[in-house]
Design goal:
Topoisomerase I, Chain A, domain 4; four-stranded antiparallel β-sheet; 58% helix
Length: 187
Amino acid sequence: MSEVTDMIIDEASQNMKKAIKHLEVELSRIRAGKANPQILDGITVVYYDNPTPLGQVANISTPDAKTITVQPWEKSMLQDIERAIIAANIGLNPQNDGEIIRLYLPPLTEERRKELVKRVNAEGEQAKVSVRSIRRDAMETIKKEQKDGLSEDEAKDTEGLIQGLTDKHIEQIDQHCKDKDKEIMTI
């Protein structure tokens, strides 16, 4: 293998790993019946005229499997946090007692579980598309390098390695989705 092909393989591998990491983050945001503070990731609150992540203006914890508590550093933020949670449309109604905001996770209905499984599968499909796109880009780069003097044998070998990487990452995506599906459908 030459430096060029090693670089192509490394770049493709790094990008595929990023696609897997992104999938893991997205799957962690899908609630599966038990309280997880990551459900609130991505919610921002206006704090001194700046959009700020919720985790930077409040302490988020899970006292039990069905409850998430949000305790702001400043009590004046309670209303803003409550509005931000409602606006995020995550399917939870905040309960504000003047000190702390509680989010109670209702038990998932069969219908809701099926919707969540569809969402998991859509996220998995999106990750697969990303991985395939990375493979396509790597294959195009190999073809360009072949025109610039890369031997045909080395190009074929590199393409085989790229395909192997792609297959491995697609399997990982399938496994992540299968695990999340099982987690969601477990009552």
